[in-house]
Amino acid sequence: MKTVLAIITAIGILSSIASAQQYPQPLLAPGQSQVSAGLGVSWIDGTPYYMIGVMPDLSFGPIGVGLDLTLRINTQTGQIRKVDWSDGAYRKVIRYVRYGMKHDPVYAQVGQLDMATLGHGFIMYNYNNSASFDDRRLGAELDLDFTRFGFEAMYGDFQTPGLTGGRAYVRPLKFTKLNFLPVISGFEIGATYVTDQNENSDIALIRNANNNLIGYGSLGKMSAYGFDAGLPVVRFPMVNVDLYYDYAQFVHFGHGNGAGIAGTFRGMGIVTLSAKLEHDWIGNEFIPEYFDQFYELERYTYDSTSGNPATKALQLQNAKKSEGWYGQLVLSALGQFNIIGAYRGIDHDPNGGLLHLETQFPNVIPILAFSAGYDRHTNNTLKDAFKLDDRSLLYAFLGYKPYPFMTVGFNYYWTFVPVDGHYVVQKRIEPRVMFNFTF
Length: 439
Description:
Layout: H1 2-13, E1 34-44, E2 47-60, E3 63-67, E4 69-74, H2 90-93, E5 94-99, E6 106-111, E7 139-145, E8 149-155, E9 163-170, E10 188-196, E11 203-207, E12 213-218, E13 222-235, E14 239-250, E15 255-267, E16 271-282, H3 295-298, E17 300-302, E18 309-311, H4 312-318, E19 322-333, E20 337-346, E21 353-361, E22 368-378, E23 392-403, E24 406-419, E25 422-438
Antiparallel strand pairs: 1-2, 1-25, 2-3, 2-4, 3-5, 5-6, 6-7, 7-8, 8-9, 9-10, 10-13, 11-12, 13-14, 14-15, 15-16, 16-19, 17-18, 19-20, 20-21, 21-22, 22-23, 23-24, 24-25
């Protein structure tokens, strides 16, 4: 608990670091569009490329479209970087096509999923379907809320078998005479199911009937199901507070449950502050938020020394009974900046910490633009919270605006690239001149 409180305090100080989304959507008013175009140089693992591109974010009422039309040309050979435009290039061009926004009565999106979440996130939270620029995926989300009931659904990858999940929920008091009650009539119960059809999703240690180890193998496709309940306790124009509870079970593995409180404060339409604090009771062979921003990286890799598999399923198999905490803060003001900070810790797992920081400051200082994101698997003492290695994701942009429509700056990415069936670190540095037109 002390660790979580320390993190929540530190989030206010660490506002200059943030989410590792590859292409964070710009802060735009509803119905507003922006077209960004520019040129520069891209260093990818030390190889320089000339870069020219257009990245439109277009809005037509509730419909939004985001594209990435970027060419990288090798400075020595003059050839276009083939990986960017090879088989499946459409997955790299289409960043998103959406209708509505998350938590609207109707929300649908096709493209790269940066932060897919089901329910309170106990099974799936901030899932990213594209672990690499060079291996971007095309997935989908669909949420429908019919007031009395509804559902959330996601599909991770249209090209290959992968992650599929859904949550159905009902507000039972809406079907009774208590429907008129302004707060508790929103009481909600839900059921979630997530499965991963990838052939490597459940590679773990196999034992025979005598409990003797016989090697690595598949126990069947990784699947989890869960049940949840949420109760709104405060509903005012400026303050919302909810209590919630979650239970989850992995097929072939263990179970866990958690309870928390989430609230939002709106300061006269100027400042919005949201906070979430959760306590988890974790059984053997259970990991909360199992399908997270690192899942595609961790699903299957191998130990370079021994050659043995090093999978997320093995992490699950080795997880011990424990307790944990999760804390999150989100701060935004007048559409001028966003700050998000979150931390998950597991008491008896020294490496069970997960840190997520995100920020966008496009207009706070008129001549500067800054956005960044950082995700990190760390230990519970946070001694290695800000190291860049194979447990980190980083995106950062810093720019100078000599004119309102022009930005001179550079991007830095610490990301990953698939090599021989596993992911290795890839570093990108991209100085560029950008022209942004908002309408």
